[in-house]
Amino acid sequence: MTVRPLRLLGDPVLRTPCDLVTTFDAALEALVTDLLDTVQVPGRAGLAANQIGTSLAAFSYNVEGRLGYVLNPRIVETDGEYDGEEACLSVPGVQARRLRAAYARVEGVDLRQRPVAVEGTGELARCLQHETDHLRGELYIDALTGERRRAAMRLLRSRATIPGPASGGGDRPLV
């Protein structure tokens, strides 16, 4: 089992859109294994490849007893509204209410390039949207508005610094 270290807010890999997976080889299989191992740490629901330092369009999920992954995911359908607490492994210690679709369907492929579809409501829908956003270089805090955004930003600023990238480096300023 390989649990990879997480990249945190301030690491440029989190703000860089991920590349589509085009090479389906042993390295990709190892990445998927690491994504699945890393998302199974208690308290985790989803994990995008860029959160572990790899700029490929891949994520894993572990929500309500459903564990899996999607390569080259794209949201193809959403419906309704779901307003609930959201947090991010790459923005530790900050959570905020965020409006998302109540239902989401993601399509992509698996390691054998076979079509994959994952759909869900509630927390699974939130996870699918959250991880797909990561792959575009977006964090959930980016879409917060009004008092929700102000509260999240106050919390971030109160922390003064965040750890540097998992590959080394010292602390960095938050903004």
Automatic annotation (TrEMBL):
Cofactor note: Binds 1 Fe(2+) ion.
Enzyme Commission identifier(s): 3.5.1.88
Catalytic activity from the UniProt record: N-terminal N-formyl-L-methionyl-[peptide] + H2O = N-terminal L-methionyl-[peptide] + formate
Annotated keywords: Hydrolase, Iron, Metal-binding, Protein biosynthesis
Pfam families: Pep_deformylase
CDD domains, per the entry: Pep_deformylase
Positions of the catalytic residues: E131
Cofactor(s) needed by this chain: Fe(2+)
Record-listed Fe cation binding positions: C88, H130, H134
Record-stated family: Belongs to the polypeptide deformylase family.
PANTHER family given in the database record: PEPTIDE DEFORMYLASE, PEPTIDE DEFORMYLASE, MITOCHONDRIAL
Primary role: Removes the formyl group from the N-terminal Met of newly synthesized proteins. Requires at least a dipeptide for an efficient rate of reaction. N-terminal L-methionine is a prerequisite for activity but the enzyme has broad specificity at other positions.
Name of the protein: Peptide deformylase
Protein's organism: Pseudonocardia xinjiangensis
Gene: def
